[in-house]
Each structure stands twice: as structure tokens, then as C-alpha cells.
Amino acid sequence: MTQGTLFNMEEPPDRGRGTPEILGPGAVVLPGLVRARAVDLLSAIDDIVRRAPLRHMTTPGGGRMSVGMSGCGARVWVSDAAGYRYETHDPRTGRPWPPMPGMLQDIAEECARKAGYDGFTPDSGLINRYGPGDRMGLHQDRDERRDAPIVSISLGVSAVFLWGGMTRSAPVRRIVVRNGDVVVWGGPSRLVWHGIAPVPHAQHPLCGDVRYNLTFRLTA
Ligand SMILES: O=C(O)CCC(=O)C(=O)O
Ligand SMILES: [Fe+2]
Fold first, then answer.
1. Residue of 153, 84, 88 whose CA lies nearest to 123
2. Which terminus in the chain has less CB density within 10 A, N or C?
3. Pocket flag, ligand 1, residue 140 (CB < 6 Å)
4. Prediction ipTM score
5. Ligand 1 pocket test, candidate residues 41, 154, 213, most atoms within 8 A of CB
6. What is the CATH number of the domain that holds 195?
7. Annotated binding site for Fe cation
8. Is the model's pTM score more than 0.95?
């Protein structure tokens, strides 16, 4: 990922629940789509991070990412002084990443289908953990297959998803993503710059002051 700039703007107005919101060609927010599965998803995250602990990765430039990361599946995104890449083994433990639970695979595929992407079979599930104030700067997801969409699930504390354009300096839309919301982007929008504004200090009944994000991709 490439870190970019963030803009601090006031909270955007609320949007209706349940109505898909088109972000652009091939990109959609599906509000609350997996809210009923939030407890199961969080328990799957717990199982994974017990075996592959969350860690703060460093960027090639030496910066420490505020978001805690782990993952499951055949390959998981890692970053260190050597660069951004996918690895089959967890550098922290030397072991293969935990396999992707069938439940996660099914939910990711169903989310993709709902967004118009039939036949999406992710081989990588990234876990991002945001504490209060943690953020992810504007970036493009460039390190995996670009002919497959990204399926992104928000859990816990609400955050503002930043949805930019095809260049880093394009105007940025701010979209509130809540527990159980899903964002899917692919096709002509696959390389849109995006990020997460600093997560507010807030409480969610399932997660305390934490936001989790699960992101599914195809890497090989
Ligand atoms: O946390 C999010 O919603 C976005 C995560 C993201 O963009 C990424 O992992 O590449
Ligand atoms: Fe991303």
C-alpha cells in the first residue's frame, strides 16, 4: 500500500440503512449486509489471531502502521523494510497462515455476488484492527489480482471510509461504515484510492472501542 494524505472534514450526513449505495462503476456499499453474522465473524477473527497474532507492520520507508494486522488463507499481505508483498507463511511465527474458515469464504463469496461479482473465490483474508485514533491513509490495493474485486467487511465501532478516485489527489467521498456494512469494489474501480479516517473514540457492544475490518482478495 502507498500511504497518502487525509483530510479532516466534518462527519458526513447519515445514509439510509439497507439501501445499496453505488460509489462508482463496479463499486458499492451494502449497508448492514452481514450485521446478523457479526458475532460469528468476530469469533472467527478471535480464532485466527490466536494462531497468527495481530502485529503492527512497518512500511518500506520505516513507518509503523497504527493498524494491527493478521490474516488467513493461502497468502496474506505483509509489509516490512523489504516492501509490500503476499506471504504464504506468517513471518512472526514461521508457520503457514491459518486456513480461511469455510464460513468466511462463503460470506465473502456471497457479498461479492450481491455486488454483481459471481465466481469470486478469495484466497486471502486480511484482518485490520483499529483502536481509537488509528487510521489508514489513502492508498491503492495493488499487490493482488486486479481482475478480482475486493470485499471489505466492517465490524465494531463505526468509521469513515474514504473513497477517492483514480489519482491520489482526486476528491474524496466520506462514507460512514458501521458494524456489518460491506464495501465491494472491482472492475473499473478496482484501483481507486481509499482509506480510513482516524477511528473515533467510541464504544460498540460487541467490540468495545475497536473497529475490525476483514478484507477478502484473490492473490494468485
Ligand atoms: O479498514 C478498511 O475498511 C479498509 C482496509 C483497506 O483498505 C486495506 O486493508 O487495504
Ligand atoms: Fe485498501
1. 88
2. C
3. no
4. 0.99
5. 213
6. 2.60.120.590
7. 139, 141, 194
8. no
